[in-house]
Amino acid sequence: MKDLTHTVLTLLLSTLSLAQTLNIPTRSGSIISLSQPSTITGSVDYGNKEFDRGRACNTDDDTGSESAVFILENGASISNVIIGANQLEGIHCKGACTLTNVWFRDVCEDAISALGTGNVLIQGGGAAAAKDKVVQHNGRGTVTIRNFTVDGAGKLYRSCGDCTNNGGPRNVVVENVRVKGMTSDLVGINSNYGDTATVSGSCGASKRVCQEYKGVTKGSGSSSKVDSTANCLGSQGKLSKLPAC
Predict the structure, then answer these.
(1) Is 238 a member of any domain?
(2) Residues of the signal sequence (predicted)?
(3) Which residues contact 17 (CB under 8 A, 6 or more apart)?
(4) Which domain covers residue 214, as residue numbers?
(5) What is the DSSP string of 162-190?
(6) Which of 74, 151, 199, 223 could bridge to 174 as Cys pair (CB 3.0-4.6 Å)?
(7) CATH number assigned to the domain comprising residue 73
(8) Res. 14: pLDDT tops 80
(9) Residue 228 lies inside a defined structural domain of this protein
(10) Does 77 fall in a domain?
(11) What is the pTM assigned to this prediction?
(12) Domain total for the chain?
């Protein structure tokens, strides 16, 4: 009984710690389970409503936009929304988009996928339990991640290592991000495609701040790490690790 009580207490404290770290707002109303992705045009403020797709995360494969909770058309903005745990894909941006105070309780494949041409701004919000990446960048342009919190992830950001018609440049700007429990590098970029990463004002635990790769096209092998840090920029881009928060 003592061991069971200790286990329950540990899980409870872990859950409370996670919530406190992310500061996820109190959900407004009941969880809304969507039967298909919700496509967003213009600007939508959800007032902290929570959405999912009613399906448990049972695969790490890329299941495409049909599995997303939200699809943002070029130029769309979404704010003050919580993505619940029962989904395979979070938010897919088809071009330029803005995400403000978007929270992910439990990331499945990726939380945010930048798929088109245009700049993506992610400001505020946070993500938990991303087994692989939080942000996947397949398109072209600059992804800015500002004042974001991560509790448990492989990477914060990765420019696609082996996409169809892969190339660049892709750029990422990371500002004032807090990370905890990151098992790999903060950001990964393809230096052979001219990608850049600019990191500043961030803190927490990760293996490396910026890791460069050699990107490949789909079917041409695997993307591999390279030793260069020439494209790792900003006051923290070349650091071996972030300072503690």
Answers:
(1) no
(2) 1-19
(3) none
(4) 27-233
(5) S-TT----EEEEEES-EEEEE-S-SEEEE
(6) 199
(7) 2.160.20.10
(8) no
(9) yes
(10) yes
(11) 0.90
(12) 1
